[in-house]
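Could you join me in thinking about how sequence relates to backbone shape in a protein? To get us started, please write out a protein record for me. Would you write everything just below, so we can both look at the same thing?
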Amino acid sequence: AKQRAGIERYWPVSRLAIEADEGVHFERAWLDPEAGKGFCLATGPSKEAGMRIHERAGHPTGEVYELPIEV
């Protein structure tokens, strides 16, 4: 069954409080706590900016896919 939960429950620092520092906005996130996996959809100036926000929010990521074309 799908569950919707407040994202702050899983991230110790609210990304909403810091995303503007880098010009990043997280549109949506999907989490699987049992598997320890998550996927975020974000917009921002660069891949690196998104990675910095993840790091500062307490969940660094080694995989970020930058998509240069919007349709």
Summary: The first strand starts at residue 25 and ends at 32. The helical segments are 15-22, 47-56. The chain has a mean pLDDT of 81. The beta strands are 25-32, 37-43.
